[in-house]
Amino acid sequence: MELFEVKSEPLSLEDITKKVERREAGAITTFIGTVREWTKEKRTLYLEYQAYEPMAAKMLAQIGKEAEEKWPGTKMAISHRIGRLEISDIAVLIAVSSPHRKAAYEANEYAIERIKDIVPIWKKEHWESGEEWIGNQKETVPYPSGRPHL
Amino acid sequence: MELFEVKSEPLSLEDITKKVERREAGAITTFIGTVREWTKEKRTLYLEYQAYEPMAAKMLAQIGKEAEEKWPGTKMAISHRIGRLEISDIAVLIAVSSPHRKAAYEANEYAIERIKDIVPIWKKEHWESGEEWIGNQKETVPYPSGRPHL
Amino acid sequence: MIKILLFAGLREEAGKSEIEIKADNLSISGLKQQLLETYNSLNLNGAMIAVNEEYATEDTVVKSGDVVAFIPPVSGG
Amino acid sequence: MIKILLFAGLREEAGKSEIEIKADNLSISGLKQQLLETYNSLNLNGAMIAVNEEYATEDTVVKSGDVVAFIPPVSGG
């Protein structure tokens, strides 16, 4: 049972929640990132995720370690899916258990922000009008062909 | 399919997540409140939840309405269980979907805080050494017999 | 008749979950006084009040047929 | 031999996911120069660098047998 994983198979919310359940932890938060059909006026047909797999799994585990240091008593699990994903498919799952709810929320949100900063995973949007590797970690400025605005 | 409910049957994370799923919402947060075995040095054997059921369901719906006004575009569902609950049983589930993750986290945390303020539901702790209705909505100052410190 | 609902610790103190009081056009504080004549050990001071499933205040006036709930500090979630 | 890994847009620009370069004791910036001699359209400026699966900097020195990954801005989550 890997707490931090990158895989091609569908992700299960039930499974990841079980990974962090503990009798002393009364609060669990989960984050479910799904493939959105509409981003502003643009319609996504499907997505493709690519990862530098061994390093991505390591970085996810590092995020978990960071969170457990910042919020002692929390336990985290993260799964990220790669390959082709359809609309509404789950791309990422984050689960955090904690004796206290505040830490469970904060550590969870910390994790998704860190994923978008440091984990080597990329998504390619496929629209009716074309396709594009999304390159900005905070999803605000997509640029074509993996080439950032310099 | 009720978005806001108070019931005696076990709660399902899968079910409540489905209630808020939408193709335009790429982020879903859930909160799972479970029965904790240990609160500081005190060991809980089991809990009993009582509700003013029709009003509690109304208040949950009101929290959802407040959240949808504060965070436009979010959709919320809340289920609260009542009756006898064992350690690790789920007492409350909150799910929020949103096109953007920040709102999904914030609205979810708002909901659990509001539940602890305004929803007429009470829990009775059963310990080895006795039992007690917990009376302070933020769980910081339990008092015996439903009688607050005045 | 005004129906009074009790919960949690208050229910245990009173030994019942519902009490009916013959009254009409009475403020909540008046109702409390009347209730305490019979149930003098009930501690209603920390409780919020709901009339017909909506939160109300001490000076809310209730009529016959209304349902008044005394809501001790809540502890759900 | 230093193994170079390319991802996402960089992989498509180069038309391959791995490139091997004969080199030893070379800084990342030196490695980039050598790589651009063959793949002159590759835009490496926005990419982070990892050496053996750990983030590294331009002046990190790599040896034969090391794996260097060019990591364009990430977009997981």
UniProtKB/TrEMBL annotation, chains A, B:
<dbReference type="InterPro" id="IPR003448">
    <property type="entry name" value="Mopterin_biosynth_MoaE"/>
</dbReference>
<protein>
    <submittedName>
        <fullName>Molybdenum cofactor biosynthesis protein MoaE</fullName>
    </submittedName>
</protein>
<dbReference type="InterPro" id="IPR036563">
    <property type="entry name" value="MoaE_sf"/>
</dbReference>
<dbReference type="Pfam" id="PF02391">
    <property type="entry name" value="MoaE"/>
</dbReference>
TrEMBL record, chains C, D:
<dbReference type="InterPro" id="IPR044672">
    <property type="entry name" value="MOCS2A"/>
</dbReference>
<dbReference type="InterPro" id="IPR003749">
    <property type="entry name" value="ThiS/MoaD-like"/>
</dbReference>
<comment type="similarity">
    <text>Belongs to the MoaD family.</text>
</comment>
<dbReference type="InterPro" id="IPR016155">
    <property type="entry name" value="Mopterin_synth/thiamin_S_b"/>
</dbReference>
<dbReference type="Pfam" id="PF02597">
    <property type="entry name" value="ThiS"/>
</dbReference>
<dbReference type="InterPro" id="IPR012675">
    <property type="entry name" value="Beta-grasp_dom_sf"/>
</dbReference>
<keyword id="KW-0547">Nucleotide-binding</keyword>
<protein>
    <recommendedName>
        <fullName>Molybdopterin synthase sulfur carrier subunit</fullName>
    </recommendedName>
</protein>
